[in-house]
Amino acid sequence: MGRGSLASFTTSSFTPCHCSQERGLCTRAGFNLIKLLSSVFYLGYSKFLPGTLASLAAFFAYIFFIRGNTAAHLSSVLIITSLGFLITDKAEELFRSKDAREIVIDDFNGMLAGLLFLPYSLSFGLLGFILFRIMDGLKPYPICKIDKLKGGIGVMGDDLMAGLFVNIILQLLRRLIV
Fold it and tell me: What is the value of pTM for the model shown?
C-alpha cells in the first residue's frame, strides 16, 4: 500500500526524528500517537476527502456528544487547539509534507470552533459544516496568509480563522432570524 494508506501508519513506517536528544514523542509509540491524533483516529488516511470527513466527524460530535453543552464545547475546542499546535509540527515531519493531507485535526477543530457559542441546532450545524468547507476551500484573506505560515501555526491557524469566520456569519444570521 502506498503513502496515505492505512498501512502507512504501522511501525514499518517508523522514521527516526531529528530531535534525537529529546524524549517523549520521539519513540515508536510517540510517532503512532501523533499519527493517531493528527489524523483524527486515521480519518486523514482516507483517499476520499479526508478534511471533509474530519469536518463531518466534528459535526457529528457537535450533534451527538456536545449537544449544546457550552462548557464541553469550549473545553473540547481549547484542548484540541492546544493538542493540535503541539503535535502538528512533528506530524508534518513524520508525513514529510507541509500540511499533509493526513493531518486533519485542524479541520476537526476549525469546524468545532465555527459552532462555538451558538444555540444547539441541526440547522446551525449543517450550515456551519457547509460554510466551513467553503471557507477552508476558498481561503479568503487573511486565511490565505495564515495558511502560508510554517508549522503548526499555519496548519492549525488557517482552520481556526475559517472557523471564526463561520462563527461570525452564523452569529449574524442568528440575530437576523430571531
Answer: 0.86
Report the alpha-carbon distance of residue 151 to residue 88 in Å, rounded: 7
* Residue 28, CA atoms < 13 Å, CB-side half-sphere: 5
Whether 140 contacts 86, CB under 8 Å? no
Residue 174 to residues 46, 144, 168: CA-CA distances in angstroms?
Answer: 34, 27, 10
CA 133 to CA 55: how far, in whole Å?
Answer: 8
Tell me the mean pLDDT in the region 24-39.
87
CA distances from 71 to 25, 76, 78, 116, 117 (A): 30, 8, 11, 10, 10
Whether the upstream peptide bond of residue 142 has omega within 30° of 0, thus cis, is yes
Q: Nearest CA to 103 among 150, 154, 51?
A: 51
**CA pair distance 136, 96, nearest whole angstrom:** 22
